[in-house]
TrEMBL record:
<keyword id="KW-0732">Signal</keyword>
<dbReference type="GO" id="GO:0005576">
    <property type="term" value="C:extracellular region"/>
</dbReference>
<keyword id="KW-0378">Hydrolase</keyword>
<dbReference type="Pfam" id="PF00295">
    <property type="entry name" value="Glyco_hydro_28"/>
</dbReference>
<dbReference type="InterPro" id="IPR012334">
    <property type="entry name" value="Pectin_lyas_fold"/>
</dbReference>
<dbReference type="GO" id="GO:0045490">
    <property type="term" value="P:pectin catabolic process"/>
</dbReference>
<protein>
    <recommendedName>
        <fullName>endo-polygalacturonase</fullName>
        <ecNumber>3.2.1.15</ecNumber>
    </recommendedName>
</protein>
<dbReference type="InterPro" id="IPR006626">
    <property type="entry name" value="PbH1"/>
</dbReference>
<comment type="similarity">
    <text>Belongs to the glycosyl hydrolase 28 family.</text>
</comment>
<keyword id="KW-0326">Glycosidase</keyword>
<feature type="signal peptide">
    <location>
        <begin position="1"/>
        <end position="17"/>
    </location>
</feature>
<keyword id="KW-0677">Repeat</keyword>
<dbReference type="GO" id="GO:0004650">
    <property type="term" value="F:polygalacturonase activity"/>
</dbReference>
<dbReference type="InterPro" id="IPR050434">
    <property type="entry name" value="Glycosyl_hydrlase_28"/>
</dbReference>
<keyword id="KW-0961">Cell wall biogenesis/degradation</keyword>
<dbReference type="InterPro" id="IPR011050">
    <property type="entry name" value="Pectin_lyase_fold/virulence"/>
</dbReference>
<dbReference type="GO" id="GO:0071555">
    <property type="term" value="P:cell wall organization"/>
</dbReference>
Length: 352
């Protein structure tokens, strides 16, 4: 429906909007002609996704308002599913997407009972702005198959999980995506702040704050052998994580990591390792000798600085002989435990 307002001698056209207050109204709203759909104080039944995937027309704005909640059930999720083209997804002031993760947390993460991931996103030519996700049971944002999408001012707030048994609550997981930007956002969680995996190109992670988790990770050679290329992680703060930044490939894995840049990264009170570049990940940790097959090339570490706590390690590197063309400029201090550094390309000076 088109709404026309006559003001000061001018005829103004305002996009029609509809407010959805229960899940039963949602399908009709998506099929209507309203350009703005406001989801307010919705309670989503257990075992069901808030479906912003089917029948959502290009050009639609979806607003989250009030408190969005979900019934409890042990399942994979996601709690919210967003898919489409030319969409504008907005979090209105005061809203919260409340996963109430404490109902699932058991100190075991993926090894415990089934826990739903929170928000699955598969968008093209779209914007996601201002969403506040609180206490996700498992992963926060699963970004998969996205192209030309901007995420700005996102808040993934799982700080309650530090004392209530949360685990494997990654902030942003990205795979199979092109030209995705995550900017001016904050993650407080119990796993990777950013977990960037295979088949990604031109991903930008700018001016974000990561607190309490496992740092920023680029992960190659895990399952899908498609390459990871042109990754820019810039102007971020990593605070009280166990790892600051890392690039890791799986032992025996295939693929390519090329053109990863970490620039102007501040590390604060890192407990384990400030900068970690590893080619021997297996069963959840570094094990044995690194293998060729997923080379780390054109890696730039520039102005990565800050502190590691006394029992930690400033820099640790274990990579195979196919690593090449690295540029390194870091100043990470404080860690007293020296760990191995081997496999760096010739001519690269790393302060291990």
């Amino acid at each position: 429906m088109k709404v026309e307002i006559f003001a000061l001698g001018c005829l103004l056209t305002v996009a029609a909007a509809i407010e959805v207050n229960n899940i039963q109204q949602l399908e009709a709203a998506k099929k209507g002609n309203d350009k703005v759909i406001t989801l307010k104080n919705i309670q989503v039944p257990a075992g069901q996704s808030l479906n912003l995937e089917t029948n959502l027309k290009p050009g639609t704005t979806v607003e989250f308002a009030g408190r969005i909640t979900f019934g409890h059930q042990n399942w994979d999720g996601p709690l919210v599913r967003i898919k489409g083209k030319n969409l504008n997804i907005i979090g209105k002031p005061g809203h919260v997407i409340d996963g109430e993760g404490h109902r699932w947390w058991d100190h075991k993460g993926q090894r415990g009972s089934k826990k739903p991931n929170a928000i699955y996103v598969q968008l093209e030519n779209s914007k996601v702005n201002g969403l506040y996700l609180k206490n996700a049971p498992a992963w926060g944002f699963s970004v998969n198959g996205c192209k030309d999408v901007d995420f700005t001012n996102i808040n993934v707030d799982n700080k309650d999980g530090h004392t209530k048994g949360a685990l494997n609550t990654d902030g942003f997981g990205i795979a199979a995506s092109r030209n995705v930007k995550i900017m001016n956002s904050r993650v407080n969680n119990q796993d990777d702040c950013l977990a960037l995996q295979s088949d990604c190109d031109h991903i930008y992670f700018d001016n974000n704050v990561c607190e309490g988790g496992h740092g920023i990770a680029v992960i190659g050679g895990y399952g899908n052998p498609k390459p990871i290329t042109n990754i820019f992680i810039r102007g971020c703060q990593v605070i009280k994580n166990n790892i600051g930044i890392r690039v890791k490939t799986m032992r025996g894995g295939k693929g390519l990591i090329k053109g990863v840049t970490f620039d102007n990264i501040v590390l604060k009170d890192i407990s384990d390792t400030g900068i970690m570049i590893m080619g021997n990940y297996y069963n959840g940790g570094p094990t044995g000798e690194p293998t060729n097959g997923c080379p780390i090339t054109d890696l730039t570490i520039n102005n990565v600085r800050g502190n590691v706590l006394n029992n930690g390690t400033n820099v640790r590197i274990v990579v195979a002989s196919d690593a090449s063309n690295w540029k390194w400029n870091s100043n990470v201090q404080g860690g007293k435990q020296k760990r191995e550094c081997k496999g760096m390309p010739k001519g690269v000076k790393v302060p291990c």
